[in-house]
Amino acid sequence: MKVVKNCKEQSDWTSVCQLDQLMENYGQCVQLNQEQVAIFRVSGIEKICAIDNFDPFSGANVLSRGIVGDIKGVPVVASPVYKQHFDLLTGQCLEDETVKLATYPVRVLDGVVQLSTK
Q1: Could you say which of 40, 59, 74, 97 is the most buried, measured as most Cβ atoms within 10 Å of its Cβ?
Q2: Which of 57, 63, 70, 73 is nearest to 38 (CA)?
Q3: CA–CA distance, 70 with 99 (Å, rounded to integer)
Q4: How many Å apart are CA 23 and CA 61, to the nearest integer?
Q5: Which residues on neighbouring strands pair with residue 40, listed in sequence order?
């Protein structure tokens, strides 16, 4: 399996936005160190999801602009370029099992969304 980027370990946390700034079923791009991260507030799962914003098929940082949906109970985002679907919980591409994006641990403290920095 080709991993586009390794999963980050949980350690330090960085505040990236207020929870009320995230609209349900829309993505938001945030900067975490030198990386662009796409974060999503997905209705129905009571969780904020964070994956790489980089679409390995188009070579562009666009996943935060993708269409959020559900395929067989799996929350996904469809790339706005070539329409591949990525599992928002695992980063796995549903159309190509050899491609998996990094995911980031997320927590919400006092209404502030935080991502792990490692």
Answers
A1: 40
A2: 63
A3: 19
A4: 20
A5: 27, 49
CA distance 5 to 72: 26
Return the domain boundaries, the chain: 2-116
Please give the CATH architecture assigned to the domain spanning 2-116.
Answer: 3-layer Sandwich (2.102)
Bridge partners (DSSP) of residue 93 are 86
CA atoms within 13 A on the CB side of 36: 13
* Digit-coded pLDDT (tens) for 14-59: 999 999 999 999 999 999 999 999 999 999 888 999 999 999 999 9
CA distance 99 to 2: 5
CA-to-CA distance for 48 and 115, rounded, in angstroms?
A: 10
Q: In the structure encoding, which two tokens stand for residue 20, read together?
A: 């009320």
